[in-house]
Design a protein that fits this description.
Elements: E1 2-6, H1 11-22, E2 26-31, H2 34-43, E3 46-49, H3 55-63, E4 67-70, H4 80-98, E5 104-110, H5 138-143, E6 151-157, E7 160-162, H6 169-180, E8 183-186, E9 192-197, H7 198-211, E10 216-220, E11 223-227, H8 228-239, E12 243-246, H9 251-255, H10 259-262, H11 271-277, H12 286-291
Parallel strand pairs: 1-2, 1-4, 2-3, 4-5, 5-6, 6-10, 7-9, 8-12
Antiparallel strand pairs: 9-11
Length: 296
Protein backbone atom coordinates (compact mmCIF):
# COMPACT_ATOMS: atom_id res chain seq x y z
CA UNK A 1 0.00 0.00 0.00
CA UNK A 2 1.24 3.50 -0.84
CA UNK A 3 0.57 5.76 2.17
CA UNK A 4 0.72 9.54 2.35
CA UNK A 5 1.73 10.62 5.87
CA UNK A 6 1.55 14.12 7.34
CA UNK A 7 3.70 14.77 10.37
CA UNK A 8 6.02 12.15 8.92
CA UNK A 9 9.12 13.42 10.72
CA UNK A 10 7.38 14.27 13.99
CA UNK A 11 7.59 12.37 17.26
CA UNK A 12 4.86 9.83 16.45
CA UNK A 13 4.98 10.19 12.68
CA UNK A 14 8.63 9.22 12.32
CA UNK A 15 7.94 5.98 14.21
CA UNK A 16 4.85 5.34 12.07
CA UNK A 17 6.91 5.78 8.89
CA UNK A 18 9.45 3.25 10.20
CA UNK A 19 6.65 0.82 11.05
CA UNK A 20 5.04 1.15 7.62
CA UNK A 21 8.31 0.72 5.74
CA UNK A 22 9.28 -2.31 7.85
CA UNK A 23 5.89 -3.86 6.99
CA UNK A 24 6.53 -3.43 3.26
CA UNK A 25 4.38 -0.39 2.55
CA UNK A 26 5.47 2.53 0.39
CA UNK A 27 5.47 5.90 2.13
CA UNK A 28 5.35 9.49 0.94
CA UNK A 29 5.89 11.94 3.78
CA UNK A 30 4.93 15.60 3.96
CA UNK A 31 8.08 17.66 4.62
CA UNK A 32 8.30 21.37 5.41
CA UNK A 33 12.08 21.65 5.51
CA UNK A 34 15.21 20.35 3.80
CA UNK A 35 16.16 18.50 6.99
CA UNK A 36 12.80 16.73 7.09
CA UNK A 37 13.06 15.82 3.42
CA UNK A 38 16.55 14.40 3.94
CA UNK A 39 15.43 12.35 6.95
CA UNK A 40 12.62 10.78 4.93
CA UNK A 41 14.83 10.04 1.94
CA UNK A 42 17.40 8.33 4.14
CA UNK A 43 14.71 5.96 5.36
CA UNK A 44 13.64 5.12 1.82
CA UNK A 45 10.45 7.16 1.84
CA UNK A 46 9.35 9.58 -0.86
CA UNK A 47 9.06 13.29 -0.12
CA UNK A 48 6.15 15.65 -0.73
CA UNK A 49 7.20 19.22 0.07
CA UNK A 50 4.60 21.40 1.77
CA UNK A 51 2.82 22.11 5.05
CA UNK A 52 -0.66 22.07 6.60
CA UNK A 53 -1.59 25.41 5.05
CA UNK A 54 -0.86 24.14 1.52
CA UNK A 55 -4.28 22.58 0.94
CA UNK A 56 -3.65 22.01 -2.77
CA UNK A 57 -0.50 20.11 -1.81
CA UNK A 58 -2.40 17.99 0.72
CA UNK A 59 -4.99 17.21 -1.93
CA UNK A 60 -2.32 16.17 -4.41
CA UNK A 61 -0.63 13.96 -1.82
CA UNK A 62 -3.91 12.21 -1.04
CA UNK A 63 -4.82 11.76 -4.70
CA UNK A 64 -1.53 10.00 -5.45
CA UNK A 65 -1.73 7.52 -2.54
CA UNK A 66 -3.77 4.47 -1.56
CA UNK A 67 -4.32 5.78 1.97
CA UNK A 68 -3.66 8.83 4.16
CA UNK A 69 -2.38 8.97 7.73
CA UNK A 70 -2.79 12.48 9.12
CA UNK A 71 -0.58 13.08 12.17
CA UNK A 72 0.57 16.67 11.69
CA UNK A 73 -0.65 19.47 13.94
CA UNK A 74 0.69 22.98 14.50
CA UNK A 75 0.55 22.60 18.31
CA UNK A 76 0.69 26.37 18.67
CA UNK A 77 0.10 26.66 22.42
CA UNK A 78 0.22 30.46 22.20
CA UNK A 79 -2.52 30.48 19.55
CA UNK A 80 -4.60 27.28 19.83
CA UNK A 81 -7.32 28.74 17.62
CA UNK A 82 -4.88 28.76 14.72
CA UNK A 83 -3.95 25.12 15.36
CA UNK A 84 -7.65 24.21 15.43
CA UNK A 85 -8.35 26.12 12.21
CA UNK A 86 -5.51 24.46 10.34
CA UNK A 87 -6.48 21.01 11.60
CA UNK A 88 -10.08 21.33 10.47
CA UNK A 89 -9.09 22.71 7.06
CA UNK A 90 -6.67 19.83 6.48
CA UNK A 91 -9.21 17.16 7.49
CA UNK A 92 -11.88 18.76 5.31
CA UNK A 93 -9.45 18.73 2.37
CA UNK A 94 -8.66 15.06 2.83
CA UNK A 95 -12.33 14.17 3.23
CA UNK A 96 -13.28 16.01 0.05
CA UNK A 97 -10.47 14.24 -1.80
CA UNK A 98 -11.07 10.70 -0.54
CA UNK A 99 -14.88 10.57 -0.51
CA UNK A 100 -16.12 7.80 -2.78
CA UNK A 101 -12.67 6.26 -3.30
CA UNK A 102 -12.87 3.53 -0.65
CA UNK A 103 -9.43 4.55 0.59
CA UNK A 104 -8.43 4.68 4.26
CA UNK A 105 -8.01 7.89 6.21
CA UNK A 106 -6.39 7.62 9.64
CA UNK A 107 -6.27 10.78 11.75
CA UNK A 108 -4.70 11.57 15.08
CA UNK A 109 -6.97 12.54 17.96
CA UNK A 110 -6.70 13.01 21.70
CA UNK A 111 -8.29 11.65 24.87
CA UNK A 112 -8.34 14.74 27.08
CA UNK A 113 -12.06 15.59 27.07
CA UNK A 114 -13.79 12.28 26.47
CA UNK A 115 -14.90 11.26 29.97
CA UNK A 116 -15.13 12.53 33.54
CA UNK A 117 -14.60 10.46 36.66
CA UNK A 118 -13.69 7.25 34.80
CA UNK A 119 -11.34 6.01 32.08
CA UNK A 120 -12.49 6.94 28.59
CA UNK A 121 -13.47 4.07 26.31
CA UNK A 122 -13.75 3.64 22.57
CA UNK A 123 -17.53 4.10 22.83
CA UNK A 124 -17.13 7.67 24.11
CA UNK A 125 -17.75 10.23 21.40
CA UNK A 126 -15.77 13.43 21.31
CA UNK A 127 -17.72 16.48 22.51
CA UNK A 128 -15.66 18.66 20.17
CA UNK A 129 -18.02 19.62 17.35
CA UNK A 130 -17.62 22.47 14.92
CA UNK A 131 -14.86 24.85 13.84
CA UNK A 132 -14.53 26.60 17.20
CA UNK A 133 -14.01 23.43 19.23
CA UNK A 134 -10.87 21.56 20.30
CA UNK A 135 -8.80 20.48 17.28
CA UNK A 136 -11.48 22.12 15.16
CA UNK A 137 -13.82 19.22 15.82
CA UNK A 138 -11.75 17.26 13.30
CA UNK A 139 -12.57 13.78 14.58
CA UNK A 140 -16.33 14.31 14.35
CA UNK A 141 -15.90 16.00 10.99
CA UNK A 142 -14.02 12.98 9.63
CA UNK A 143 -16.58 10.56 11.06
CA UNK A 144 -19.30 12.28 9.03
CA UNK A 145 -17.63 10.68 5.99
CA UNK A 146 -17.40 7.15 7.41
CA UNK A 147 -20.31 5.97 5.30
CA UNK A 148 -19.48 8.06 2.24
CA UNK A 149 -16.96 5.80 0.57
CA UNK A 150 -13.99 6.67 2.78
CA UNK A 151 -12.67 4.30 5.48
CA UNK A 152 -12.28 6.62 8.46
CA UNK A 153 -10.21 5.55 11.47
CA UNK A 154 -9.45 7.79 14.45
CA UNK A 155 -6.30 6.99 16.42
CA UNK A 156 -6.69 8.54 19.85
CA UNK A 157 -3.29 8.89 21.47
CA UNK A 158 -2.63 8.83 25.20
CA UNK A 159 -1.46 12.20 26.60
CA UNK A 160 1.96 10.63 27.14
CA UNK A 161 3.40 8.93 24.07
CA UNK A 162 6.79 8.37 25.63
CA UNK A 163 10.27 7.19 24.74
CA UNK A 164 13.80 8.44 24.19
CA UNK A 165 13.62 11.82 22.48
CA UNK A 166 10.09 12.72 23.60
CA UNK A 167 9.65 16.51 23.71
CA UNK A 168 5.99 16.54 24.76
CA UNK A 169 4.16 16.90 28.06
CA UNK A 170 6.48 14.75 30.19
CA UNK A 171 9.56 16.52 28.83
CA UNK A 172 7.96 19.81 29.94
CA UNK A 173 7.39 18.36 33.42
CA UNK A 174 11.02 17.28 33.62
CA UNK A 175 12.13 20.76 32.51
CA UNK A 176 9.99 22.32 35.25
CA UNK A 177 11.55 20.00 37.84
CA UNK A 178 15.05 21.02 36.72
CA UNK A 179 14.12 24.70 36.81
CA UNK A 180 12.57 24.69 40.29
CA UNK A 181 14.65 21.95 41.91
CA UNK A 182 11.52 20.02 42.88
CA UNK A 183 9.30 17.58 41.01
CA UNK A 184 5.75 18.79 41.35
CA UNK A 185 2.24 17.44 40.99
CA UNK A 186 -0.98 19.41 41.36
CA UNK A 187 -3.23 19.12 44.39
CA UNK A 188 -3.39 15.59 45.78
CA UNK A 189 -1.87 14.07 42.63
CA UNK A 190 -4.72 11.64 42.01
CA UNK A 191 -5.48 12.88 38.50
CA UNK A 192 -4.27 10.18 36.11
CA UNK A 193 -2.94 10.01 32.57
CA UNK A 194 -3.01 7.17 30.10
CA UNK A 195 0.36 6.36 28.55
CA UNK A 196 1.85 4.38 25.67
CA UNK A 197 5.33 3.81 24.33
CA UNK A 198 6.00 5.40 20.96
CA UNK A 199 6.74 2.11 19.17
CA UNK A 200 3.50 0.55 20.43
CA UNK A 201 1.56 3.60 19.23
CA UNK A 202 3.15 3.34 15.78
CA UNK A 203 2.27 -0.34 15.50
CA UNK A 204 -1.33 0.44 16.44
CA UNK A 205 -1.56 3.00 13.64
CA UNK A 206 -0.31 0.46 11.10
CA UNK A 207 -2.69 -2.25 12.32
CA UNK A 208 -5.57 0.20 12.19
CA UNK A 209 -4.68 1.23 8.67
CA UNK A 210 -4.48 -2.37 7.54
CA UNK A 211 -7.57 -3.78 9.19
CA UNK A 212 -9.85 -1.49 11.19
CA UNK A 213 -13.36 -1.00 9.80
CA UNK A 214 -14.66 2.45 8.92
CA UNK A 215 -15.74 4.53 11.87
CA UNK A 216 -13.29 2.83 14.25
CA UNK A 217 -12.16 4.78 17.31
CA UNK A 218 -8.83 3.28 18.39
CA UNK A 219 -7.13 3.97 21.71
CA UNK A 220 -3.34 4.00 21.67
CA UNK A 221 -3.13 3.24 25.39
CA UNK A 222 -0.85 0.77 27.16
CA UNK A 223 -1.23 2.04 30.74
CA UNK A 224 -4.76 3.04 31.63
CA UNK A 225 -4.04 5.39 34.52
CA UNK A 226 -0.68 6.66 35.79
CA UNK A 227 -1.35 9.20 38.52
CA UNK A 228 0.29 12.58 38.23
CA UNK A 229 1.89 11.97 41.62
CA UNK A 230 3.45 8.74 40.29
CA UNK A 231 4.79 10.67 37.31
CA UNK A 232 6.25 13.31 39.61
CA UNK A 233 7.78 10.63 41.84
CA UNK A 234 9.49 8.95 38.89
CA UNK A 235 10.91 12.31 37.79
CA UNK A 236 12.00 13.06 41.35
CA UNK A 237 13.86 9.75 41.65
CA UNK A 238 15.58 10.32 38.33
CA UNK A 239 16.68 13.88 39.05
CA UNK A 240 17.21 13.25 42.76
CA UNK A 241 14.99 16.18 43.75
CA UNK A 242 12.15 16.41 46.29
CA UNK A 243 8.59 15.63 45.22
CA UNK A 244 6.07 18.29 46.26
CA UNK A 245 2.45 19.27 45.78
CA UNK A 246 1.87 22.47 43.83
CA UNK A 247 -1.29 24.50 44.46
CA UNK A 248 -3.59 24.43 41.39
CA UNK A 249 -3.62 28.24 41.20
CA UNK A 250 0.17 28.12 40.69
CA UNK A 251 0.05 25.58 37.86
CA UNK A 252 0.89 27.95 35.00
CA UNK A 253 3.70 29.64 36.89
CA UNK A 254 5.32 26.38 37.97
CA UNK A 255 4.77 24.11 34.95
CA UNK A 256 4.31 26.50 32.03
CA UNK A 257 1.92 25.49 29.25
CA UNK A 258 1.64 21.89 30.48
CA UNK A 259 0.14 23.12 33.74
CA UNK A 260 -3.27 23.46 32.08
CA UNK A 261 -3.27 19.70 31.38
CA UNK A 262 -1.51 18.29 34.44
CA UNK A 263 -4.58 18.55 36.70
CA UNK A 264 -6.82 16.84 34.13
CA UNK A 265 -7.81 13.21 34.52
CA UNK A 266 -6.93 11.77 31.11
CA UNK A 267 -7.16 8.05 31.85
CA UNK A 268 -8.43 5.68 29.16
CA UNK A 269 -9.01 2.03 28.37
CA UNK A 270 -7.90 0.26 25.20
CA UNK A 271 -9.70 -3.05 25.77
CA UNK A 272 -11.83 -2.82 22.63
CA UNK A 273 -8.87 -1.73 20.52
CA UNK A 274 -6.76 -4.66 21.71
CA UNK A 275 -9.54 -7.11 20.93
CA UNK A 276 -10.29 -5.64 17.51
CA UNK A 277 -6.70 -5.47 16.25
CA UNK A 278 -5.03 -8.17 18.39
CA UNK A 279 -2.73 -5.39 19.56
CA UNK A 280 -0.55 -5.99 22.61
CA UNK A 281 1.78 -3.23 23.85
CA UNK A 282 5.33 -4.42 24.53
CA UNK A 283 7.22 -1.22 25.31
CA UNK A 284 8.40 -0.04 28.74
CA UNK A 285 6.05 1.79 31.08
CA UNK A 286 6.17 5.56 31.48
CA UNK A 287 7.93 5.30 34.86
CA UNK A 288 10.42 2.82 33.44
CA UNK A 289 11.21 5.19 30.57
CA UNK A 290 11.67 8.15 32.90
CA UNK A 291 13.91 6.23 35.30
CA UNK A 292 15.94 4.73 32.43
CA UNK A 293 16.94 8.23 31.35
CA UNK A 294 14.63 8.76 28.38
CA UNK A 295 14.29 12.41 29.42
CA UNK A 296 17.87 12.97 30.48
Amino acid sequence: MHVFVTGATGWIGSAVVDELLDAGHEVTGLARSDDSATALERKGARVHRGDLDDLDGLRAGAESADAVIHLANKHDWANPAESDRAERAAVQTFADTLTGTGRAFVLAAGLSTLATGRPATETDLSPAVGPGSHRGGAENLALEYAEKGMRVISARFAPSVHGVGDHGFVAALVAAARKHGVSGYLGDGTAAWAAVHRTDAARLVRLGLEGAPTGSLLHAVAEEAVTTKEIAEAIGRTLDVPVVSVAPENAAEHFGFVGRFFALDMSASSARTRELLKWTPYGPSLAEDIEAGAYA
